[in-house]
Specification:
The chain is of the alpha+beta class. It contains 19 helices and 11 strands. β7 (364-370), α16 and β8 (396-402) form a beta-alpha-beta unit.
């Protein structure tokens, strides 16, 4: 465009130099030529030394997310090429993006413009990793994100919503986040969500405190977890606890579990009284909502099947309120704890035969809530088969509650995996009547019930499960002998 207009100006200058008579004609022709040349001219490309336009903070966050998602997608794709679950596990572990590094980049960027909505979303991305442990480099970034969110976004419902998923692990930073939200939230919805989040976190904390205070001997310094050995066999190994966790355990052992439990109950009562009308909408709900709004909803690069879309729509259709959640939590605190009778389960097994929990009175029952879609659930199956075989002929029963919407697919997996013990099918995960009665939120959930039908261990795994079952079977056999 500039070059075209310059040509026109040169032409005009020449006309003026010729004579005064030709000035108007030259002016007219020059203007016409300039327009034609300008319209037909191509825009010159940027020069190497031209400054690049600065990206907005939202674009910068999007670029970091895109980089992380691409790395994670590559790791998943390569892992699928593994010839065994062990090989896939190794490949994914090697290629998966470092969450601590990406979290640090997110927090550093958010700190430059902390009030920006994009900064809030970036900080929530850091916080919303409830599976990450409360120690190490990631914990440092978690704490920084907490401080920024509390200072600039504490009255935001989306921030409080993240707190609903943080009750699976305890840490000083999670204490700070959930207590800070409860104190600083002002809006009706935000305050209600923050109150429920803190209540359920304290409920879980009270359980941890009671367990640690009841443990015999010195403070626990090691943990046991399932992992693969060098040959690819799934085994249970013992690890030293990180220093941060040791310090956290010391804090818990000096805490009064009844005081924590009482505060959780007070918070649930407060929810029912003041915020019961607020809808219970989690972060997962929001993500599912956004997913189903896509022209072609896809998950991990695969379009959802019609049945999966219907299942998602059913999950979004719920009308659960914070009052419903609080009442369920109170019921869980009062009735689904060690020493209380296990709620009755009557109905039909997945094989179509009548199946009642009370029919197993006189036996120690391990009740497992699971689903074929749940990786940790399927990893427990070999151990469960071993338990069933080990205690064959003794007062013991293994019962399952399958949470698959597709019963036929579940039966196929059960046959392949050698799951021969009785199972109920409860339908969609989190939506079935048995799951709701037992207030199951995570999978697998394993509950040990004694021969009298009383809950003895609400959720136990690995060697802890073996020990609990062995002790209760001996107790049951001794009782029978005395009679």
């Amino acid at each position: 465009m500039t070059r075209g207009w310059l040509n026109g100006l040169v032409f005009l200058a020449a006309g003026v130099a010729t004579s005064g008579q030709g000035v108007l004609a030259a002016e007219h022709d020059g203007a016409r030529n300039a327009v034609e040349i300008g319209l037909n001219a191509k825009m010159p490309g940027p020069r190497p030394d031209d400054p690049k336009p600065a990206k907005t903070i939202a674009q910068q966050f999007a670029a970091i997310r895109a980089e992380y998602d691409a790395a994670e997608k590559t790791a998943s794709a390569e892992a699928e090429k593994g010839k065994s679950e062990f090989e896939s596990w190794k490949i994914y572990g090697k290629l998966m993006p470092d969450q601590a590094v990406f979290s640090r980049r997110m927090v550093d960027l958010a700190a430059t413009e902390p009030r920006d909505p994009a900064a809030r979303d970036g900080l929530l991305w850091v916080i919303d990793k409830p599976g990450m442990g409360p120690e190490g480099p990631y914990s440092d970034e978690f704490t920084r994100a907490v401080l920024l969110l509390l200072r600039y976004h504490a009255d935001d419902p989306e921030v409080a919503r993240v707190g609903l998923g943080l009750d699976n692990l305890g840490s000083p930073a999670r204490d700070l986040f959930l207590e800070g939200l409860y104190i600083r939230a002002k809006g009706h919805e935000t305050k209600g969500l923050a109150t429920v989040a803190l209540g359920q976190y304290l409920q879980q904390k009270a359980r941890s405190v009671a367990w640690l205070r009841n443990a015999k001997g010195p403070a626990q310094t090691k943990m046991r977890t399932q992992t693969y050995d060098e040959g690819g066999k799934l085994v249970e190994k013992e690890f030293e606890l990180p220093q941060e966790q040791l310090a956290w355990h010391l804090h818990l052992r000096m805490t009064d579990p009844e005081a924590v439990r009482s505060e959780a109950r007070r918070l649930f009562d407060e929810v029912i009284k003041n915020y019961g009308d607020v809808r219970y909408v989690t972060r997962n709900y929001r993500e599912l909502e956004a997913l189903l709004k896509q022209p072609t909803p896809s998950w991990n690069g695969r379009p959802l099947t019609p049945e999966e879309r219907k299942q998602g729509e059913r999950m979004l259709a719920h009308k659960k309120t914070l009052a419903d959640v609080a009442r369920a939590k109170i019921d869980e605190m009062e009735n689904l704890v060690a020493g209380k009778p296990a709620p009755a389960i009557d109905g039909t097994g997945i094989d179509g035969k009548p199946l009642k929990l009370s029919d197993y009175r006189g036996k120690v029952v391990v009740l497992v809530f699971w689903g074929t879609w749940c990786g940790p659930c399927m990893q427990e199956v070999p151990h469960e088969r071993e338990l069933a075989e080990r205690y064959k002929g003794r007062p013991f029963a293994l019962l399952g509650v399958d949470c698959d919407s597709d019963k036929a697919a579940a039966l196929k997996v059960m046959k392949e995996q050698g799951i021969t013990w009785p199972n109920w099918n409860d339908g969609d995960p989190g939506e079935g009547p048995i799951v709701n009665k037992y207030h199951v939120r995570g999978y697998p959930t394993i509950i040990v019930i004694d021969a009298k039908g009383v809950i003895r261990s609400p959720n136990v795994f690995g060697s802890g499960l073996d020990k609990a079952v062995e002790e209760l079977i001996k107790e049951a056999e001794t009782t029978v002998t005395r009679k």
